[in-house]
């Protein structure tokens, strides 16, 4: 009997343990199997990895930040359009050409809309593209190195905002101008805007093998503001959709004057038709100037080329390729659902969300259901193409993403909330507040045929009291919601760099196996690379001195250099001989008017030092590399101009030697 | 009484499996307190830890040794000189002091060697700069070994 009692007790105790285990320790079982404390859902234990990568635009920092989800931990800030002293981006000789433009070297931009490359409408994790808004550019980041490897300037464009979204097989990355400008650019009165200003929509082809970008053609559209865009997918593959505002073509006080029309347009562009036209010799080769900058991973060096011609297409040359879909009140977001059927227009000032039907659009084109035209482009009849509208969803709709389960999630700037609604029935299912004034939102893969509908990331425009105050300027803010249940659940606030606009996310498993660990020394073709200490040397060429230097734990070779003179231009070409993961070395020189270098294993980088004072000046390693890191240093002797001290260089008292 | 012990044990097991929350245990175990090593190892019997378990040596192959010298110059000579202590130990005559397997494992698997192999641990304590993993292939390590066989201690 006693034994039986004990057994029963044991079973009871065990079931309690089992039960609490199954619930994840939660008392909120009523909210569904996946509910639990928010802290548990975002907790990634020390040494564990996050499930998703999130690439969050750095806004006015010009960069791209890499976060883990659900933890919200910041892993890396990838320099794209702005110089970054930490990584010597834009400071070392190798990356300066990346920031060249037709206006010269520009150390900053405003980065907005990252988008991950796709194959067959699904994320393929090869590259992420992002637009520079101010001096129009599109950048490509290689997701094996997480480095910017190509930047192309967009001519005839200004406020490069309806960018940088990719087509279903990354055939093109698309860049649309927010501000229309005179075409061609010229000295003219601003009040003659109407009819003389044009809006360029640029299609940049992407090589399927190596990702090389090429500005294939520009469509010179009427002088509206082209705000955002998204590609067709599935059935609507081959089309691209752009929201417009300021169809009034106002050039002053747009706040009032561009909000007059009851409806503006979504421009539907059949890019396949225009591509075919261009491939057959259509379009005009127009003179222009833009920079195309390419970073070569083998030479570890970027080159900048100025191009002087672009193919432009006037919409009237390709009838049947472009239509306007009337959309209420200055639409901002332009989002296409995973099936490619619904095109969602978010009228910033409208009381409802508009969903156009792609099927109905094709039928209306077929049946010529037109409501006039604008600059020769047919305007389709609103009622003929409308799929439905979400009534009274909130105030100030901006952007929509999809979970792949038939739900859409839209941000509302004015009423500060994310609203979940159903595609097809247009009913609102749930709404959750954001803190505060949300702009974009992101579901990993939410702009593809295959979303990973587990989390939505909301990126806010205003932070106010969400964190400890840090004076008048406070950090920017993002918020993570669990969307696996019927109702959304706010899990986490985390700070972001710059002002985040759009973001792109994908499962970590898509990128993790391809992430490069080192650069192989054998493959290093940098012009000034040295691959062993025996090859290290110092060469004078007039007043230029080239130091071919190596670094390994924990010394430089050579580390004593004499024969440098005031007025010389001294190039430090430094190769990291390490071939092990996570062993970068840094180098910095007293008085050098530039940043440090941070050199990855197998890589070569260069900085320039122009010594101004006689003396013996040290340099040292800036990245703590081993127990003897503090010993990693050297000296350069600087003599007066014209001195007879010869160039000599040593390591450990010997001329640098291998054995 | 025995049953009670069993029950307690089971409950503890359940609770701890709960704590790990079903996560895969592919992560590294936390470093354990190592016992003091007191056993003296004969270096000429110690094969070290790593991918190399057996090397059969025959006559020195000079062509291999020449290739090995080239690899050594490119990847190793920044820290090792043959005739003198540098960042790491002098290497002339090394094949008379260590087994071929130990040498190759030290080249190919230095992280684990300096963590677990008593001789390698002692070397790290003396030299402080950890032996760098230069990501060589087994074939390259074998070539270097052949080169080492040609350099005797003076």
From TrEMBL, chain A:
Its main location: other. It is found in: Cell envelope. InterPro entries: Copper_CuA, Cupredoxin, N2O_reductase_N, Nitrous_oxide_Rdtase_Sec-dep, Nos_propeller, NosZ/Cyto_c_oxidase_sub2, WD40/YVTN_repeat-like_dom_sf. PANTHER family: CYTOCHROME C OXIDASE SUBUNIT II (PTHR42838), NITROUS-OXIDE REDUCTASE (PTHR42838:SF2). GO terms for molecular function: nitrous-oxide reductase activity. It comes from the Bacteria. The lineage of its organism: Bacteria, Pseudomonadati, Bacteroidota, Flavobacteriia, Flavobacteriales. Residues 1-22 form the signal peptide. Keywords: Copper, Metal-binding, Oxidoreductase, Signal. Pfam families: nos_propeller. This is Sec-dependent nitrous-oxide reductase. Its EC number is 1.7.2.4.
TrEMBL record, chain B:
Residues 1-20 form the signal peptide. Residues 21-37 have a biased composition (Basic and acidic residues). Coiled coil: none annotated. Residues 18-37 are annotated as: Disordered. Keywords: Heme, Iron, Metal-binding, Signal. Residues 63-152 form the Cytochrome c domain. Pfam families: Cytochrom_C. This is C-type cytochrome. It comes from Lutibacter aestuarii.
